[in-house]
């Protein structure tokens, strides 16, 4: 079956392409995307902020790895036509006893080397979709993938960090910091949560946190047991330096912020304090299942997460796609959701 794909061929330029989808393939489901969430990673491609050699290697490519849709064909017993599902962008081609699917170098990831969800239809293996329960808002559900990244990082933290978790810090007042904070509050309710950021308006939105700090000013007398770095880009270096300064000995630092270029780390103090630094990237089926279950069981989380939706853009054609990405660039913060009326 002929499928229409909307690929970024150069910065700020989408073009229509066509692909063929094999019908009635064993264990395959075909999903019609309905709500798509724009990520910073999409913007780095759209604006041409990736290095030239990376752009040359990966474009043309359909963007978006955060999306939900409706099943229009299923060859799997556990997925039915009409099911509302969240799609999993990580696509493993093998399994490993010790290495999670999102760290296998052989895995593919949608909108990072092969086509993302900006298509009329998407064919996936049945284990790459998770059914959504009734009652979860579509706009919030569209960025479950980003939530699953936070859940994955917290699960890794729980298996790595020592058991003293009286005070946990998050550095970063953007979408990732906000989402990680909400899930930390749910998964580790006994821990006090401190947020460190640079924008007073954004910090004010962390009403669920115990403390907030603006790192633009002088901070004294602060310490915490563990930390999550959710800043990324050039500012992540300063954030990691601050974390190393304030964290208690033998604390664990979870690195989530994506930086295009290497950042310096004060390894001397890492050694002297006996710190553990570990990275978390992307997520897999287990993380998606847990995220969906948590949203179902905790409606308060959905309500909080709706606060970071900044733009909702109906999309019918390429002009609308460009408009959505341009509005996302101009927004002060939060998420831009495309209603995919294709």
Silhouette = globular
Q: Superfamily at the CATH H level of the largest domain?
A: Medium-chain alcohol dehydrogenases, catalytic domain
The tally of helices reads 11
Number of strand segments: 18
User: In whole angstroms, how far apart are the ends?
Assistant: 16 Å
Helices and strands, in N-to-C order?
EEEHHEEEEEEEHHEHEHEEHEHEHHEHE
Largest beta-sheet characterization: 7 strands, mixed
Domains counted in the coordinates: how many?
Answer: 2
Find the structural class using helix and strand composition.
alpha/beta
Any idea what the radius of gyration is? 20 Å
CATH class wording of the largest domain? Alpha Beta
CATH architecture of the largest domain: Alpha-Beta Complex
Mean pLDDT: 96
Low-confidence stretches: none
**Helix content, binned percent:** 25-40%
Q: Please report which band the strand proportion falls in: under 5%, 5-15%, 15-25%, 25-35%, 35-45% or over 45%.
A: 25-35%
Annotated CATH topology of the largest domain:
Quinone Oxidoreductase, Chain A, domain 1
In short:
The chain is α/β, with parallel strands linked by helices and 342 residues long. It has helices spanning 40-46, 52-58, 138-141, 144-160, 175-187, 200-204, 236-246, 267-273, 285-297, 299-305, 318-330, and strands spanning 2-10, 13-20, 28-37, 61-62, 66-74, 84-87, 90-91, 108-109, 122-125, 129-131, 167-171, 192-197, 211-214, 226-229, 252-255, 276-279, 309-315, 335-340.
Describe the structure.
- This protein has 342 residues and is an alpha/beta fold.
- It folds into 2 domains: 2-145 and 308-340, Alpha-Beta Complex (Quinone Oxidoreductase, Chain A, domain 1), CATH 3.90.180; 148-279, 3-Layer(aba) Sandwich (Rossmann fold), CATH 3.40.50.
- 30% of the residues lie in helices and 27% in strands.
- It is built from 11 helices and 18 strands.
- Strand 17, helix 11 and strand 18 form a beta-alpha-beta unit.
- The longest helix has 17 residues, at 144-160.
- The radius of gyration is 20 Å and the shape is globular.
- The model has no long low-confidence stretch (mean pLDDT 96).
